[in-house]
Amino acid sequence: MTHQIPALEMTGISKRFPGVVALDAVDFQLLQGETHVLFGENGAGKSTLISIMAGAASSDSGTVRLAGRETSLRNVADARRLGVSAVFQEFSLAPTLSVAENVVMGEQPSRAGVVSHRAVRELAHRRLGELGFEIPLDAPVETLTRAEQQMVEIAKAFRSDLKVLILDEPTASLNDTECERLYELVGDLNRRGVGVVYVTHRMGEIRRLADRVTVLRDGRYVTTVPGTTSSEELIRLMTGRVMDQIYPTIPPPTSTVALSAVGLTTRDQAVSDASFEVRKGEIVGFAGLMGSGKSHAARACAGVERLAAGHLELHGRRVTGASVAQSLRNRVVYLPPDRKSEGLLLNRPLRESVSLPWLGRYSWARTLVRRRSEQRDVADVLRMMKLSPPDPDRNAEAYSGGNQQKALLGRALLRECEVLLLDEPTVGVDVGARVSIYQRVADIAEGGAGVVIVSSDLPEVLHLCHRVYVFCQGRITAHLQGDEINEERVLQHMMHWDETEAVG
Amino acid sequence: MTDVVVETKPAAARKRRVNVTGAAARVFARVGALPILLAIAVVVFAMLSPNFLTVDNLQSALRQNAYIAIIVLAQFVVLVAGGFDLSVGSITALVSVASATAMSDRLAAGSSPAEAIVIGLLIGLLVGLGAGAVNAVGIGMLKINPFIMTLATASIFAGLALKVTAGVPVSGLPADFSDVFGYSSWWGVSTPIWIAIAAAVVLWALLRWTRPGRNLYAVGSNPNAARLSGISPGRTMALAYMTSGVLVAVGALLLTARLQTGESNIGADLPLLSIAAAVIGGVSLRGGSGNVLNAVLGAVLLGLVTNGMNLARIESYYEMIVLGVVLAVAVLADRLRGRVAAAINAGRV
Amino acid sequence: MTDVVVETKPAAARKRRVNVTGAAARVFARVGALPILLAIAVVVFAMLSPNFLTVDNLQSALRQNAYIAIIVLAQFVVLVAGGFDLSVGSITALVSVASATAMSDRLAAGSSPAEAIVIGLLIGLLVGLGAGAVNAVGIGMLKINPFIMTLATASIFAGLALKVTAGVPVSGLPADFSDVFGYSSWWGVSTPIWIAIAAAVVLWALLRWTRPGRNLYAVGSNPNAARLSGISPGRTMALAYMTSGVLVAVGALLLTARLQTGESNIGADLPLLSIAAAVIGGVSLRGGSGNVLNAVLGAVLLGLVTNGMNLARIESYYEMIVLGVVLAVAVLADRLRGRVAAAINAGRV
Amino acid sequence: ADKPSSSEPSADWFPTAVTVWPKQGFDSEGVEQEYSPTDDVSKAWNICASFPHLADAYWLAADYGVIQEAERAGVNMDVLEAGGYGNLDKQIQQIEDCAQNSDAVIIGAISTDGLNPTIEKLKADGKVVIDFINGVSSPDTTAQSLVSYREIASQTAQYLLDTSDGEAVTVAWFPGPKGAGFAEEANKGFTETLAGTNVEVVNTQWGNTDKDSQSKLIEDALAANPDLDYIAGNAPAAEAAGPILRDRDLTDSIGVLSYYMTPGTYSGIQTGSVLASAADPAVLTSRIATDLAIRALEKQDFDLHVAPALQVIDKAALESWDSTTTLAPTDWSAEFSYSAN
Ligand SMILES: Nc1ncnc2c1ncn2[C@@H]1O[C@H](COP(=O)(O)OP(=O)(O)OP(=O)(O)O)[C@@H](O)[C@H]1O
Ligand SMILES: Nc1ncnc2c1ncn2[C@@H]1O[C@H](COP(=O)(O)OP(=O)(O)OP(=O)(O)O)[C@@H](O)[C@H]1O
Ligand SMILES: [Mg+2]
Ligand SMILES: [Mg+2]
Questions:
Q1: Minimal CA–CA distance to B335: which of C142, D61, C316?
Q2: Which of A28, A60, A400, A434 for a ligand 2 pocket mutation test, highest count of atoms within 8 Å of Cβ?
Q3: Closest CB from D84, D96, D137 relative to C268
Q4: Which atom number of ligand 2 is nearest to the Cα of residue A89?
Q5: Rounded to an integer, what distance in angstroms lies between the CA atom of residue C70 and that of residue C60?
Q6: pLDDT value at position A494?
Q7: Which end of chain D is more exposed for a tag (fewer CB within 10 A), N or C?
Q8: Does the CB atom of residue A432 touch ligand 2 within 6 A?
Q9: Residues of C in contact with D85 (CB under 8 A)
Q10: Which residues lie across from A220 on neighbouring strands?
Q11: Quick check: bond before A389 cis, omega within 30?
Q12: Is B306 exposed, middle or buried (0-12, 13-18, 19+ CB in 10 A)?
């Protein structure tokens, strides 16, 4: 492999955005048949570099060579023609179109200019099949869950004539089992000589996949190391600091019940007959495969989903059917998993997204906004979350994905809560920031709040939670605590709900 | 909205209720609000006026609305791509005066009627294409907001049409033009209706079976996603506006044939009317969805309601009020359909 | 679009060019397109007509546009919340005839002018609020698409206004009404201008300093996010439409005072005009952004251009064309600003 | 702007038969007499004329009238149009703008009452205000040059009574846009005259006076009343009726009447598709309006309300009728200003 021409080579790539240098003379080299991980903190410039490779953005300076030839990629179509294809961090799906249409978008199989709908479905079916994803081909994409959308997104990039495949946090919303097939496919591609650029914050994925790792920090190239480099070393390279431990020690819970749900069934039947409770000072995990109903169970607790049956109690007080506003007044807060569609006010200053539910608390007579104290508190929280760049008055859409996620979490930390329901809280957040987030969650629990973590990231659930409820097909299939919380048991209950009796 | 069966009822009564409303709900969810509203309109107006449900009247109502239906198709194409066209009315006027001027000039210059007609048709289509191209450049290339761009060109094209004619109808068109394109009929159905049907079928096929057609939906649904899939949203949008311009020209030519003159003050209502018809036909103003048949049905519904009210001699104030109510109800009913479908899916009906 | 300095130039020339265009670009990027376009318009029209740049004319142009500015504010509120209001014109007509009818009836029934005026104002504001409430129910509660709902109510309200007056203007208003609200002035500036300024300031304060104001932006920006934060998008939207209705009523009352009659045939251009002014003022049609000052400046720009063209005796067909071009250029310039800002950032200017 | 018009020589429109009222409005007793414009114009006055719109042949004739008369008399003329009958507010702006550099304003009003404050202010500023064609209720106008639409529609109705000769016949009536002053007036005149006669107005359809809208209204009226005898209404309705009736072979059985004249109805009368049309001499009205403005500015004697004589024109009358009183020449294109220099 020594004299091989690199599949992709970038030199001196720079890119500025208003107020930020996203990339500063970055070099990057991708060999044929290797998986090359891009690693760096949130806002380090990974996604920006990737958009330039994929033709989705232009660089201010620098050159791109594909298979040794200098090329200028003016748009995605150019890149695709040269065999470069990408899964972007933010979904790029057409919500009103079907899954099949989305998978083949831009390259519908056609004969003599006539699109064959049969061929479209076959191609989509094959792509999804290769990845082992089972998604109804005719469902409009807007009706899918985030995880399913992620799968469609991945399927779009797996084309037949690939030379370079770029994956920007493709598994952020998938859980381990669902990721496995993807890893295998990446391996297959490598063997066929396809170079894969892979962005991830999950150390496990680096272990599993990386041939080499390029580290970026603050838009600058730091170094490229072999994939076997230890996690501690990678984190040190990324943050410039040594990080001893990711997960904090979690304090023991109290025995007072904060929130309890009995026989919860949602209107849309996504959850049926689920009973669970959260105690003060306790961190409870909701695990489950995609579409298992874990999110909907959490949403129902915060008044986001309407109930068909069952009831909810907060500190022994009935709060069944409370609206979102009432829940917030009861200090029950739900953070949505999809920061773009349900979380942030994208074209408003980031500050406003953070203080949104709490505006009443920052107002005289709940009407006149005290802008000064709002600004101060939001700035404090975001500083603590290590927002980069630390300027809450930039529009939310101008932040990197991970930083948007931090801001969303900041929303929950802005005010003290009784019950905090975090749905996929650390999607796309870098390891360094995750440490401080986990620490905050532990602190909040210690402060007496009940915390629910809904997550597809199994390690997160395993390490952070006192107890775990496992969901399958809308029902709770297991209730694990203490030593019972381990990977095999959780996985087993996720998939075979009939083997164990539903827990009441 | 949908009645959920309450738990306390005896099971038998419950069962029956489910069956009756259930069947109705299922029909509703299947066919949508539009055919039902059309049926209601037909029944109501048939009761209000004995002349409504005659072959003659229905044929005449459809013929009157044939060119509107074509312009609704033009609007439809643009809406699917996530655009908006407020200039369809002005383009109609401009095409009308341009083609009429061309025909009457040719005729005056001694051409044969057939030659004059062919040239007039060509000029009309070219003007429509050109007007569409202006929109296309502004929206597709310069990325000016479609609402503003077409509002601007609406003003510009109307100014041009007036400049050409000073508001005086252009007369002296070949009689054949009007006879063939305005008043002839084949197998008992008049030509404008045939042309509208042909336009709808062609457009349907283009949107369904060609790649640019599919791209239109993709761009309308999420331009950024389309871009990241290698589709140029700008170029696709430009294509939509040019197609739209040509379709408007077809409608305008039919109208000119019916009026027998080129008119600069026609079409003022068309922009909002065509959008309303398309939306009633289930097209989303956010782009990326809608089907040709329903858009045409939307135009037919509005046309029949107006015709019916005219026949029933409803006072013109009330006509305005009724039309407003029909619009709102049609869209509301479509929303309701979504709910009913969801309820059926959730097994609650 | 933005001129990027080419590499081949000698360094010295390059440097100078950067400084000159650079400074201009920086100013442009800072203040935006609107003030620059306003300045250009003023200079051009001052050259074309000696009467343009007189205190009298500017005062008169502003006074003429004061009520339009208020209606632009009404449109602005709704646009910020992610809505759309095509009924502002019809509400204007309805408020005008309703308040005029009330005043002239009171006066005829022997009330004092002051009493009649107060009642007329109240009725006018209530009708505006009521009309806004109809839109609010349709859009906020029944979730009918704003475009269609307000198109429907535009037709309904216009029908009602005609029904109330039977097409005949309502005269016999108290002279004081017109004197005070249409023609008086304070410190040399006429009352309608003061009222427009007051409305703008109040609205600005409400949007900036109150929770409902902030909620408006949130709902406009992302209704789902707002909902998950305990804000009801429906209720917020409803609030926007009711505020809008009241603002339209204020504008309509001023207009009625200037006309001294209640008229059903006013405001036909207002819906599109007000949206155009707001968009020129940088308001996004996708909701969630825009500021009051710029929206008002947008109205002023359109008003001054029309006034200037009238003074410069530009042929009215060309006026339509020029107005269209100004619209497109204003929006294009605003887009350009973003690019220039980006280029400055990238160190390319 | 001073391109010579190749049309009819513009000098010989006078003397012409007019009715003169001693006061504004139609309440006083009118006197029939001859009218000639003043030949004593001391300077090139600045006059502006405001139209509701300039998008049809009727207002084009008015445009022709004011521009030609300005040329003949040697004064400056500016023409403004408000873009339609829904835009009263815009018309006021235009009048205020143009009044700034005009000595006199000729107003074709969108609204009978809505311009009163504007006119009051113009008067206070010492401007001459001539009310023409549509009519306003303001007491502050200097003079009026306008015919009564009520009268003109009434004459149309009278013609209908005469031709139907006492038989019981039906007519569908298309006055024009609801709420527009001229259409409301015409509606009164038409229905009043036919009230209690054997002519029954079976269908009244209001609508915008574009040919497209009128065309639909006619088709619907025909569907509603299959055995209709007459169609009467605004000029676009009469124009639109031609092809529709021919298509249904009804040209001979349904008579078409218009209450004002346009080139379309004129050629309709020639070809027989229109039975008759009232001729409201828009060109003369406009010329007289211009002359009234000049007389007032010159401080000469003038009449407070002048209206040219009305006529209903059918094929028989067409021969002897001078179309230049009513229609702009076919080669006339809209002019927005004339400057005398
Ligand atoms: N936006 C949506 N539209 C329609 N159905 C949905 C939507 N979101 C979720 N569902 C359905 O609701 C059910 C439960 O979804 P939920 O989001 O609670 O699952 P989840 O376990 O959180 O899955 P994921 O890991 O994908 O987030 C699934 O059957 C899914 O199909
Ligand atoms: N559209 C934009 N406008 C302004 N600034 C932007 C824009 N997109 C990205 N940036 C800035 O560029 C920098 C790099 O962002 P990028 O998205 O490449 O980070 P990333 O490494 O992918 O981070 P993450 O791990 O959070 O996804 C960030 O500081 C971000 O704020
Ligand atoms: Mg990223
Ligand atoms: Mg979930």
A1: C142
A2: A400
A3: D84
A4: 27
A5: 16
A6: 82
A7: C
A8: no
A9: 265
A10: A217
A11: yes
A12: buried
Record: contact C331-B148, CB cut-off 8 A: yes
Give the DSSP letter of residue A248: P
Tokens of A476: 């709770």
Say what the pLDDT of residue C20 is. Answer: 66
The amino acid occupying position D31 is V
How many Cβ atoms from other residues are within 10 Å of residue D341's Cβ?
7
Would you call A15 helix, strand, or coil by DSSP? Answer: strand
End-to-end CA distance of chain A: 59
Amino acid letter, residue C243: T
CA distance B93 to B96: 5
In whole angstroms, give the CA distance from residue D341 to residue D337: 12
Asked if C309 contacts C322 with a C-beta cutoff of 8 angstroms, the reply is yes
Q: Judge D/A contact: 3 or more CB pairs < 8 A.
A: no
Q: Helix H segments across A30-72?
A: 46-53
Strands A212-217 and A220-226: antiparallel
CA–CA dist C118, C8 (Å, integer): 73
Tokens coding B345: 């899916």
Q: How far is C188 from chain B (nearest CA, A)?
A: 36
Residue owning the nearest CA to atom 31 of ligand 1: A291
In tens, the pLDDT along D283-322 reads 999 999 999 999 999 999 999 999 998 989 999 988 888 8
Best mutation site among A10, A13, A17 for ligand 2, i.e. most ligand atoms within 8 A of its Cβ?
Answer: A17
Both tokens of residue D89? 């507010």
Q: Please count the CA atoms within 13 angstroms of the CA of B263 that sit on its side-chain side.
A: 27
SS3 C29: helix
Query: D178 CA to middle of ligand 1, Å?
Result: 55
Distance C345 CA to ligand 3 centre (A): 21
* Cβ contact, residue pair B144, C332, below 8 Å: yes
- In one-letter notation, the amino acid at residue B186 is W
3-class secondary-structure state, position D299: coil
The pTM for the full model equals: 0.88
CA D131, CA D116: separation in Å to the nearest integer? 11
Q: How far apart are CA D130 and CA D140, in angstroms?
A: 10
Give the amino acid at D112: T
Considering only A481-485, B190-194, B204-208, which range has the smallest mean pLDDT?
Answer: A481-485
Nearest residue in chain D measured CA to CA from C182: D117
Instruction: Give dist(CA A157, CA A86) in Å, integer.
Output: 6
Q: Walk along chain A (504 residues) and give the pLDDT tens digit of each residue.
A: 445 788 899 999 999 887 788 999 999 999 999 999 999 988 899 999 999 999 999 898 999 999 888 888 888 888 988 999 999 888 889 988 999 999 988 888 877 778 888 888 999 999 888 888 888 899 899 888 878 888 898 888 888 788 999 999 888 777 777 788 889 889 988 998 999 999 998 888 898 899 999 999 989 999 999 988 888 888 888 887 777 677 888 888 888 999 999 999 998 888 989 999 999 999 999 998 878 889 999 999 999 998 989 999 999 899 888 899 999 989 999 999 888 888 899 889 999 999 988 888 888 877 888 888 889 999 998 888 888 888 888 889 888 888 898 899 888 888 888 999 999 888 888 888 888 888 888 988 988 899 999 988 888 888 899 999 999 888 898 899 888 888 888 888 887 655 444 443
Give chain B's contact residues with C (Cβ, < 8 Å): 86, 138, 142-145, 147-149, 151-156, 158-160, 162-163, 272, 275-276, 279-280, 285, 316-321, 323-325, 327-328, 331-332, 335
Q: Does C96 touch chain D (CB under 8 A)?
A: no
Kindly state if the Cβ of A233 falls inside 6 Å of ligand 2. Answer: no
